[in-house]
Amino acid sequence: MPACTILIADDHPLMRAALRQTVAQAFPGALILEAGAFDPAMEAIESVSGAVDLILLDLHMPGMNGFIGLFLMRGQYPAIPVVIVSALEDPATVHRALGYGASGFVPKSAPVERIAEALRTVLDGGDWFPELGDGFEDAPEEQDEPDFAARVATLTPQQLRVLAGITAGKLNKQIAFEMAVSEATVKAHVTVILRKLGLYSRTQVIIAAGRLVVEPPREEQAGRATG
User: Which residues are modified to 4-aspartylphosphate (predicted)?
Assistant: First the structure.
């Protein structure tokens, strides 16, 4: 049996290759799974019956939609620690990763030794977040952020997928088609989402859930536009 099983979920092949090399060096004999989009990442976890010891998750890849993907993973596999690996390093994003259930946050600019240290710490049951200086604890944060995170965490995987569709500006019928359910089912999910989040309209949902969506760095946006 492998020493441990680690999933690398990132849509950049070069980044996946670099992370794979880091994981292989830090954990000889580990089974390394890879995915370039959110749905294949979930399928990879299912392929080993959820027996994954650690997930390295990029915030920006097809189907991810910012932190909603993190909530989906945590909701379906709460025992698997997730380390966010992102090109973003601002305190607000790191704060949200911590508040939304990540066990660690590793900037893509971090040296190999630092990434390996972070992964070992999380696999040993700890948390690992970058040292962002004295201003980290005072980073801007919505006052109701912890309460909002707790409310979002009560949503089922299906409701989170509907929420992701709403934040992407999709109509109920589009969401229904993508989820292979009836439009009436989507409407029912929307009603429950409103109740659980303490909101009263679809517009309020879009505004509130906007904090879950993280814009990719400019260089990533440019790469996707030309890729």
Answer: 58
For tokens 């980073």, name the residue.
139
Instruction: Please count the residues of the chain.
Output: 227
Sign of torsion, CA 50 55 208 139? Answer: positive
Dist CA 59 CA 11 (whole Å): 10
Contacts of 123 (CB under 8 A, 6+ apart): 4, 27, 53, 54, 81
Between 3.40.50.2300, 3.40.47.10, 3.40.1180.10, 3.40.50.720, what CATH number should domain 4-124 receive?
A: 3.40.50.2300
pLDDT of 21-57, one tens digit each?
A: 999 999 999 999 999 999 999 999 999 999 999 999 9
